[in-house]
Amino acid sequence: MKRLFAVPLAAALALFALPALAEPVKVVATFTILGDMVRQIGGDEVAVTTLVGPDGDAHVYEPTPADARALGAANLVVVNGLGMEGWIDRLVKASGYKGPVTVTSTGVKPIAGEEEHDGHGHDDHDHGHGAFDPHAWQSVANAKIYADNILKGLVAAAPDKAAVLRANHAAFEAKLDAVEAEIKAALKPIPRKDRKIVTSHDAFGYYGKTYGVTFLAPVGMSTEAEASAGDIARMIRQIKKEKIRAVFVETIADPRLLEQITRETGARIGGRVYSDALSAADGPAATYVDMMRHNLQQFTRALAPAS
Ligand SMILES: [Zn+2]
């Protein structure tokens, strides 16, 4: 009788104690690239909520009441900084969140904000308008700084989990080293003067600076409006003048325009590249490392000398 009573009591106590021990650190990350990094380093020790989802635009995001609730319940908030998330301060204030905020770009050497190209500002989307280019994660060297900052934030939030967090961080850093070596090796055979790419989204400044690729954002291209005939003509002139080999222009969906650009310039039209957001889980860029690898394949395929 006594024994029958004792066993369920012990079980009940164990059940009561377990959730407290296994409670993950609740982290809110502003967009998918940061969310992935937190997951890589936090592993099972974190529960990550990402505010701007796959393929979303973190520059112009409008937070929801659910976002404020997620922040209100968070132990740690992880942001990019450098003016990327113009909406985050208001959201933090509205949510009542008083906890720590990890600014992942802390320690990155920032590139100055977007320049006007030949007097034509490109307005593809509301790109920060700040003093700095926020897309620092596009250099893997910077991603390592991001990872260090995230590790620091997670260890401070959950010091009892420091050992496993450090082990996860080391594993992630090894992946970053590997993909960085791949990028350098793949670009090496392509002469520096041939590494010129046009994108409609001016998000590859850090990539270009780190890996020696010239990225040009064509004049007057917009993600909202359709490219005008004048836009296309200017773009064709620029592609010819700069002898650009590869063009990544997601916004020009009209196949006749793509044909016109390839016919008149000889440039190749590249596939989809990911800059500010990861793909959905079943897409080609579900993690940061997958994104860098996917973009590299797209860039090198487009830049490879014509045979
Ligand atoms: Zn962007």
From TrEMBL:
GO terms for molecular function: metal ion binding. It is found in: Cell envelope. Keywords: Metal-binding, Signal, Transport. GO terms for biological process: cell adhesion; metal ion transport. One of its GO terms (cellular component) is cell envelope. InterPro entries: AdhesinB, Bact_metal-bind_prot9, Lipoprotein_PsaA-like, ZnuA-like. Residues 1-22 form the signal peptide. Transmembrane segments: none annotated. Belongs to the bacterial solute-binding protein 9 family. This is Metal ABC transporter substrate-binding protein. It comes from Azospirillum lipoferum.
